[in-house]
Amino acid sequence: MKLKIAVLSGDGIGPEVTKQAVSVLKVIGEVYHHHFEFEEALVGAIAIDKTNNPLPDATLELCKNSDAVLFGAIGDPKYDNNPDAKVRPEQGLLKLRKELGLFANIRPIKAFESLLEKSPLKTSIIEGTDMVIYRELTGGIYFGEKKVSDDGATASDLCEYSQFEIERIAHLAFKAAQTRNKRVTLVDKANVLETSRLWRRVVTQLAKEYPDVALDFLFVDNAAMQMILNPKQFDVILTENMFGDIISDEGSVIGGSIGLLASASVGNDNALFEPIHGSYPQAKGKNIANPIAAILCAAMLLEHFGLKEEAKAIEKAVEQSLENNIVTPDLNSVRNFGTDYVGSAIANFIL
Amino acid sequence: MKLKIAVLSGDGIGPEVTKQAVSVLKVIGEVYHHHFEFEEALVGAIAIDKTNNPLPDATLELCKNSDAVLFGAIGDPKYDNNPDAKVRPEQGLLKLRKELGLFANIRPIKAFESLLEKSPLKTSIIEGTDMVIYRELTGGIYFGEKKVSDDGATASDLCEYSQFEIERIAHLAFKAAQTRNKRVTLVDKANVLETSRLWRRVVTQLAKEYPDVALDFLFVDNAAMQMILNPKQFDVILTENMFGDIISDEGSVIGGSIGLLASASVGNDNALFEPIHGSYPQAKGKNIANPIAAILCAAMLLEHFGLKEEAKAIEKAVEQSLENNIVTPDLNSVRNFGTDYVGSAIANFIL
Ligand SMILES: CC(C)[C@H](C(=O)O)[C@@H](O)C(=O)O
Ligand SMILES: CC(C)[C@H](C(=O)O)[C@@H](O)C(=O)O
Predict the structure, then answer these.
(1) Under an 8 A CB cutoff, do A242 and B190 touch?
(2) Number of independent structural domains in chain A
(3) Ligand 1, residues A79, A94, A280, A297: which to mutate, most atoms within 8 A of Cβ?
C-alpha cells in the first residue's frame, strides 16, 4: 500500500514521541513492503512563534493532500493563562479538525494486564475494561457563535447541533458496536439541554437500523460517576463534543497511564491520529516522555487503512516492551529508559 | 433560634430519607432548645402527578417565606426516556433554584476513615481528601435560551455569563478558602470557550482582594483526570454550572458512597439543602436507602445559620453509627439495617 502521511509534531513532547511513531511506521513499511511517504509541517505554538498562525496555510494544504495526519501535541503554558491572547495554539487544532471534516474522535480505553497496579483505581474495578468512546468533534459549543459584550462584562458560547451531525457519528458508533459487545450508551444531559434531547431523538430513531445493537442512555453527571464506579459496564460510548472531552479524559485514568492512550479523529476524506496526553511541557526535551501513545497512534492509522496484521504487530511489540519492563519513568520510577530507547526497542520487537 | 423550614421531599427515596433528617433536626431542637417549624410541600414528579406542575405556586410561596428548604430528591424514569415530554420533574428544581436565587451549590467531599475501603479508588489515593466544590447554579447553559427548529432537525442551547454572576460565587469560594487551606482552583475551558475566558478574567481580578489565597486554573478535561489521579491536591474548586454538575458527581465516588454526600445551595436570602444521591427510584419504599446524606444536609443547614455546635453533634452521631456498623445495605451487604433504624440510631446518639 502507498500512503502519504503528514507529520505535525507540534509542541512540547510532541516532536520526541512522534519521531518514534514515524520510526516504527518505517519499520512496518520495510517488513510488510508498503510505501509510506512522510512530510512534516508546523502546527500549534511553534507555528505561532514562526508564522504567527497556529495552522499555517501550507500545513492545511499538506494535510488535505495527504491520506492521513500523524499528530503530536499542541499547547504551551505561555498562552494558557492569558485570557486576552488573540492567537492560541488550540485554534490550530480546532481549525484543522473543522477543515478536514474530522467529525468523530475515537478513543479506545483498555486496562493493560501488565499495568493494572499502576491505576489509581482498584484492580477489581478495572480488570477487563474494554470500551471505546465516540466523541463528536466538529460541532457543539466548540464551534458555535462566541460573543463578548463591548464592556467585556458578559460573554456567551452557543451550543448547536443538527440531525446530520449526529447521524454520521452515530452510524460509526453503531457499526463499531456491531463488531464488539453490541451496546451503545448515549451520554447526554437530556433533562436540561435541548441539544441533548435532539441527540436522544435522532439516535433513538437511527438505532432501529441496528436491531442487533442495544442502546441505552446516561446523563453526563451520572456517566462521570459510572466511569469510575464500574468502567467494565461500557462497550461503546457515544457523546457530543464537550461531554466527550471531559468523559474521555476522565476515562484515560483507568488504564494507569495516560502515556499509553491513542486516538483517531476521522472524517469522510481524512483521518488524524493523536496521542491523548497533550504537550506535557514540563517534560519537553528531557527524553522522558512515553512514546507508546504515539506509537499506538501509528497502529490505529494502519488499522484505519485495513492493515490489520501490521497494526497487530505494533500492538504486540508494545506489549513486549511493557512485559520486559522497557518503559519510561512514568511507568517505572526505579528502572526506566529514555523515550528514544523505548521507541527503538519497540521497533526492534517488530523486526 | 427560631427557624421555619420548608420540607420538599419529592420523588423516589426522597420522602424516606428526608423524614429521618427532620427527626434528627427535631431532636437537635429539643436538646439545644431551638424552635424549628416544619412545613411540607410538593415538588418534582409527584407534584406533576398531582398538580401537573413540578413546582406548584404554593410550594414556591412556602419556600420564599421560609428560612431554609430541606430538599429530598426529584426525578422519575418515566420522564427520562421521553425527549418529547413537555413537563419534566427537573424543571421544578431548576425553577426553584432560579426563583430563590440559589446561585452557589456547595459540595464538600471528604474521605471518611471508616469507609476508605469502600471506594473504587485505592486508599493511598484518597486518604486525607478534603475539598469543597463551589458550583455556580443559576447561570450558564442551564438557563440560556433554548431553541429547536420548526422541522425539529436542529437545536441549540446558549451558555451565557455576566461578571456579577461570577463575582458573587467567587467571593464565597475565596472566603471559604480563607477558613481552609487557602487555595482556589478555577475549573474551566478557557482554551475554547469565551465564557470561560470571562471567568478567568473576573476571578483573576477578584483574587487580588484575597492576597492570602492562592488561585490556580485547570481545564475541565484535566480536572476530570486530576480528581481521580490525586484528589488530595484540591482545597476549594470553583466552577460554572455544567462543569460543576459533572465534576462534583465525579468527585462523589471518592468517598466510597454517594449515600453520604450532602450539598447546600445558597443565595442572598435563602438556602436549600439536598443530598446529592438523587431519587434512586429502584430503592423507593424498600427501606434500604441510606439516610446519612439527608441527615448531613440537616447538619449543613444548622452550620449555615451559625449553629456550629449543633452541626458538629450531628456529624459526630453519624460517625458513631458508621463506626458501630449501624449502616444501610449500600455500606455493608452482610450485616445492615433499614433506613428508619439507621436514622433513629443517629438521632439517639445525639441524645
Ligand atoms: C486542546 C483542546 C482544544 C482539545 C479539546 O478540548 O478538544 C483537547 O483537550 C482534546 O481533547 O483534544
Ligand atoms: C436533576 C438535574 C437537573 C440536576 C442538575 O443537573 O443540576 C442534578 O443533576 C444536580 O446536580 O442537582
Answers:
(1) no
(2) 2
(3) A94
Give me the residue from B90, B192, B224 closest to A192, CB to CB: B90
Are A81 and B148 in contact (CB < 8 Å)? no
Q: Is residue B171 part of a domain?
A: yes
Cα B159 to Cα B156: distance, rounded to the nearest angstrom: 10
Q: Could you give the CA distance from residue A320 to residue A302 in angstroms, rounded to a whole number?
A: 19
| Residues B232 and B341 grouped into a single domain | no
Residue A84 predicted with pLDDT over 70: no
Amino acid sitting at position B47: A
Closest CA relative to residue B93, chosen from B259, B272, B298: B272
CA-based torsion, B62, B63, B65, B67: positive or negative: positive
Q: How large a percentage of chain A has pLDDT more than 70?
A: 99
CA distances from A254 to A21, A96, A239, A278, A307 (A): 24, 29, 19, 17, 28
**Domain span at residue A239?**
106-266
Task: With CA atoms as reference, report the closest residue to B101 among B169, B41, B8.
Answer: B169
pTM above 0.90, yes or no: yes
Q: Residue B115: name the closest of B306, B298, B273, B253 by CA.
A: B253
Per-residue pLDDT, B173: 98
Helices B308-323/B339-350 angle, 10° precision: 130
Predicted confidence band at A83 (pLDDT cuts at 50, 70, 90)? low
* Alpha carbon distances (Å) from A130 to A231, A274, A311, B42: 8, 19, 18, 44
> Which residue, A266, A288, A305, sits at the end of a domain?
A266
> What is the β-pairing status of strands B104-110 and B35-40?
unpaired
d(CA A246, CA B219): 9
The domain boundary, picked from A198, A232, A266, lies at A266
Residue A113 is given by DSSP the state G
Q: For residue B149, give the CATH number of its domain.
A: 3.40.718.10
Query: Ligand 1: which residue has its CA nearest to atom 11?
Result: A245
Out of B11, B55, B90, B109, give the residue to mutate to test ligand 2, the one with the largest number of ligand atoms within 8 Å of its CB.
B90
Average pLDDT taken over every residue of chain B: 95
The C-alpha of A154 sits at a distance from chain B's nearest C-alpha, in angstroms, of: 4
Q: Do A291 and A241 fall into the same domain?
A: no
Contact list, A191 vs chain B (CB under 8 Å): 75, 79-80, 88, 90
Is there a contact between A251 and A323 (Cβ–Cβ < 8 Å)?
A: no
